[in-house]
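Hi,

I'm pasting everything inline rather than attaching a file, because the server keeps stripping attachments. The sequence lines come first, and each chain or strand is labelled.
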Amino acid sequence: MLHLPLDIFIGLVLIASIISGFLGSLVGLGGGTFLVPIYTLFLGIPIAYATGASLISTIATSSGAASAYVRDRITNVKIGMGLEIATTTGSILGSLTAAYIYAHHLAYIVYIIFGLVLLSQIYVQLKKSSLELPRPMKPDWTTRIFKLYGEYYDEALNQTVKYHGVRWWLGEIIMLFAGYVSGLLGIGSGALKVLGMDWAMNLPMKVSTTTSNFMIGVTAASGSAIYWFSGLIQPILAGFTALGVLLGAMMGSRVLPKITNRLIRYIFTAILAFLGIEMVLRGFGVIH
Amino acid sequence: MPRQIAFEDLIGWALRVGVLISATLIIFGIILIVVHHGAGYYQLSQLFSIHSIVNTSSLPVSYINASSLSHLNGLAYVLLGLIVLMATPIMRVAIGIAQFSHERDWLYTLITAIVFMNLMLAIFVIPALVLHH
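And the predicted assembly:
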């Protein structure tokens, strides 16, 4: 562990939080991806407090960026809310089975499956990386019933993008798994949420990341009471983290409308590789 | 669709105000802790240590009360700021119920109500079930 003077330590916490909020708001991820490894590996913060700060950072990313995205009308609140049924249910199931999973030392299997799912999607992402907007698929019965239509004005393309989602049921199944992983491992699983909308429901990348951004806040809030009572939240660390992440997320939300879907996908794919490897390594006990 | 636009503006506005109040409370609380060299029974060095013994398992929500707030206990203000932040997504779901029912979109009113119920379950019921042992 590093022995840093307090002001430098706080400065590093703030810088890490700003970067985390900035990237998280672009690709629809919470704090678990960047913040937990930086906090534990580089700053020597105990994993319990890093996890608690990560929950706070996920909500800060979500709410900090959301006020801008709602104004820009990129987030599809209907699609997000429909999928939240599965994530909140999954997260409750995850919390309820956590004791059993940990008692039987099964958490490593979940980490490995989660990691492999993410890594397997890199190919899918690269194949789509030449496309600015998804190839339209034929609307199915779920498109009609759940009104999976939307449009937003894309500043990078200078045009209004009309889109529709398909395969709502497949999205729900992925979200159930995403919610379960969140409840069990205490990570926001924003990457799975983006994949559920991008790959399963064929939505434009920006709609997927901003809608995931909305959803991670709700999923994280569902874990807030358990985190609080378990003593995972160290108020001062969580406080500085919240301030940095809010600032970063607000900056990110100003950048997102102006950059292309392709660039967002490139950043997302790089993070997918990083996160997938991280989860597999955790599963094999190489890192904790 | 002017009705829908008004609601989206309301959500955006509510989120901005919530985030702003939260950040203000956290900054105010940290300043108070630094000025007072601590908060309540805790010293500054205890609060600012990464291996701090001060965490939410020993700080019930009732730590934030009229007495701690009126005595300008910085820790109480930081905790209040964190709670306001954690409440913003819940508030957004609650406004969503009002929005969809106002639009007479009953399918999405029901969906949002289920999400809200799940949230309440996860916050008020599940911790008691899970943390008992």
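The first helix of chain A runs from residue 6 to 27.

If the labels don't parse on your end, tell me and I'll reformat.
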